[in-house]
Amino acid sequence: MEKRVVFRSAWLPYALLAPQIAVTIVFFFWPAVQGAWFSFQLQDPFGLHTQFVGLQNFEALFASEHYLASFRTTAVFSVLVAFFGLAISLVLATMADRVLRGALAYKTLLIWPYAVAPAVAGVLWAFLFAPSIGVVTYVLKRLGIDWNWIIHGDQAMLLVVIASVWKQISYNFLFFLAGLQSIPRSLIEAAAIDGAGPGRRFWTIVFPLLSPTTFFLLVVNIVYAFFDTFGVIDATTQGGPAQATQILVYKVYYDGVKAADLGGSSAQSVILMFIVIALTALQFRFVERRVQY
Amino acid sequence: MIMKSFAATIAAAVLFSPAAYAQTEVQWWHSMGGALGDRVNELASKFNASQKDYKVVATYKGQYPVSMTAAIAAFRAGNAPHILQVFEVGTATMMAAKGAIVPVAKVMADAKEPFNPKAYLPTVAGYYTDLEGNMLSFPFNSSTALFYINRGAFKKAGLEPKAPRTWKEFTATAEKLKASGQECVYTTAWPSWVHIENFSAWHNVPIGTKQNGMGGFDTQFTVNSPLHVRHLSMLGDMAKKGLFTYAGRTNQGDAKFSSGECAMFTGSASAQGGIKKAGKVDWSAHFLPYHDDVKGAPQNSIIGGASLWVMSGRKAEEYKGVAKFLAFLSRPEVQMEWHTGTGYVPITMAAYELTRKSGYYDKEPGAETTIKQLTNKTPTANSKGLRFGNFVQGREVIEEEMEAVFAGKKGAKTALDDAVKRGNEILRKFEATAK
Questions:
Q1: Which residue of chain A is at minimal alpha-carbon distance from B397?
Q2: Measured between beta carbons, which residues in chain A are less than 8 angstroms from residue B184?
Q3: Contact assignment for B96 to A131 by CB distance below 8 Å
Q4: Which one of A156, B196, B262, B385 is most buried, counting C-beta atoms within 10 A?
């Protein structure tokens, strides 16, 4: 028999919800509405002159090839971050799941990077790969590779992808490990008795059973790549060189905060909001269908 | 009896409480971190010790763009500081915000504080003065672009440690250095500031129409002139041949020179402190090279750095304190200390004279090179400075296009045409918001 708790009072549930709703309204809805309103305006930084310009900010954005290029950069970046972030952590989780001795130490070490702030992660990798003083740069130079991400856009992209993936692996690892441990041993043992090798066991049993976790992580990682990698980029490439790593959210920050172009920046964040809504809806609509719970 | 002593106590408290001598506070937001921040605090405490009526409170608010954003937010909330340090590229933005600022000339006049704009170095004050000659903001920390050589690297390559004067000589020297096995021959900090902005002033060519934007917001960039294209394509060629190593958009080049990695370097005059502190190279500072077939070159270079803006919306009494503080900062002995302690140029002629008499330049010739280059000739419309709306974005656009050339992705002509096209879009947008 299901046990249900029902509030008898008419106002108590609302009162209990009120703090959370207030926080959501003040910190999420209000800024979002204000951002949407600013996106239709042309405003000087100090807010002394404001004029309503309709869709002019949006028209200017879509007429700018650099803004359109930023979409491509974001797509490339997000796909790389989400794919490598998931793939590497799945491998690590599978390995850690099989370890018999010292498992706790391995797990702790793998979870560690999650405690590092994105900006710190960025700086860390930027130092390792720094064009003149980096340790990795030194090795690459010995191998005859001209490593200088200050000037080569592809290398800059590689750097921010590595830093972002490294930062996210721990989070993914935790969820994958939990997912793996909840798979009934009996299923895997039965398959082993039937003569299925480790590879086959993984792809036909473990991977499908992990799909809810993978799906959840896919959504989280895409959102991470879209928004949370801001710190990594700001601490390393700052969108450069020649906009090679300027993802949408970084451009919003740059135009709004550094260049004090509130209208243009707000228009960009409105667009970004729609993209994320659309992406999440798409994922739930199509990818989730193939997920086996 | 008790009552009486009680009343006396209250009377005494009222008479002698600090409130009776309440000082008027003047808030000063700045972006000088580290050792420079200590110097700023020193200035404030010296001023506070020099009189009793006002107290300047200096607060570090993060790097230039951050402190400017913070001040904008504070202004919108009706709580702006009295004085705000703004970097040179933010000048047009501040100037356009007529309701948010009070011109320095007006602050001084209202407070009846003696103030003579002619006392300031023309290239320094000109940057922050409108066409009618009113000083809008107070020049605080100014430097210019200089050319540095690593004398040790020159000697090692069998060259006389003499800085090339022209770009032709520069290229020849660079090739010799490279041939001798020097890996990083030349690098630069602040690519747009050095190779577009200072380059234009130094060759007396405009960066934009309307006197580099000083004559009005309806200005357009002109950095795709044949001379600009020629210079950028020269740099592009040097990058291809390995004679020029690009280091980044801000002062990343400084470390490449002070560590001894690069033999030649163009960067801010304020880099000298860091080079000295690193103490790894035998170096000297020189005038920027120029193209000797350009008529009138070299002209004079322009400044970079920041100025102090007075924000509006405070009480008249508080502005008196601001005026007193600015007058204090203009004093020759205060300026000399700031100049010799930080490497920034002195802002008045009197301070320059005082420093020279003290014999400082005999010990530190690099410090005088800065001033000599800034005052090389009487500034023209092309070399007074520049004032472009939202130049934070404008400079970024120029640097992006330069990077495309250095990476070999674009030709110099296409890149500069694109920079002008994109830059003008930013200027038009700014013009629309400033109306």
A1: A242
A2: 132
A3: no
A4: B262
How many angstroms separate the CA of residue A99 from the nearest CA in chain B? Answer: 45
State the pLDDT at residue B18: 47
- The CATH number linked to A154 is 1.10.3720.10
Number of domains present in the structure of chain A? 1
**Which of B297, B304, B369, B333 has the alpha carbon at shortest distance from B91?**
B304
Confidence class for position B204, pLDDT limits 50, 70, 90? very high
Check if B249 contacts A (Cβ < 8 Å): yes
Chain B, nearest residue to A150 by Cα: B248
The DSSP annotation for B158-219 comes to T--S---SBHHHHHHHHHHHHHTT-SEEEEESSHHIIIIIIHHHHTT--SBHHHHTTT-S--
Contact assignment for B246 to A153 by CB distance below 8 Å: no
| Of residues B175, B147, B159, the one with CA closest to residue B298 | B147
> Which of B351, B374, B397 is at the close of a domain?
B374
DSSP-derived pairing of the beta strands B24-30 and B83-87: parallel
Full DSSP string of A76-144: HHHHHHHHHHHHHHHHHHHHHHH--SSHHHHHHHHHGGGGS-HHHHHHHHHHHT-TTT-HHHHHHHHTT
**Chain B contact set for A240 (CB, 8 A):** 248-249, 399-400, 403
What pLDDT digit, counting tens, does each position of A56-68 carry?
889 988 988 889 9
Residue B358, chain A, CB below 8 Å: the answer is no
Cβ atoms of A91 and A234 closer than 8 Å: no
- CATH no. for residue B59? 3.40.190.10
- What residues are paired with B308 via a beta bridge? B85, B138
* CB spacing of B393 vs A255 below 8 angstroms: yes
Q: How far is B78 from chain A (nearest CA, A)?
A: 11
Report residue B50 CA to chain centroid gap: 28
Q: Token pair of B124, please?
A: 């320094």
User: Residue B40 above 60 pLDDT?
Assistant: yes
3-state DSSP call for residue B149? strand
Question: How close, in Å, is residue A124 to chain B by CA atoms?
Answer: 17
CA distance B261 to chain A (A): 8
Beta bridge partners of B188: B266
What's the gap between Cα B431 and its chain centre?
Answer: 24
Task: Identify whether residues B183 and B55 lie together within a single domain.
Answer: no
Asked if B273 and B343 count as a contact pair (C-beta separation under 8 A), the reply is yes
Q: Is the distance from CB of B189 to CB of B271 less than 8 angstroms?
A: yes
Residues of chain A with pLDDT under 70: 1-3, 287-293
Please tell me whether residues B172 and B268 are part of one structural domain.
Answer: yes
Residue A48 to residue B407, Cβ atoms within 8 A: no
Question: What is the rounded average pLDDT of the residues B299-315?
Answer: 93
Say if CB B312 and CB B77 are below 8 A apart: no
Spell out which chain A residues touch chain B, with contact meaning CB-CB distance below 8 angstroms: 42-49, 60, 64, 66, 131-133, 148, 150-153, 238, 240-243, 254-255, 257-261, 263-264
The answer to whether residue B323 sits within a structural domain is yes
Interatomic CA distance for residues A70 and A243, integer angstroms: 8
pTM: predicted TM-score of the whole model, two decimal places = 0.83
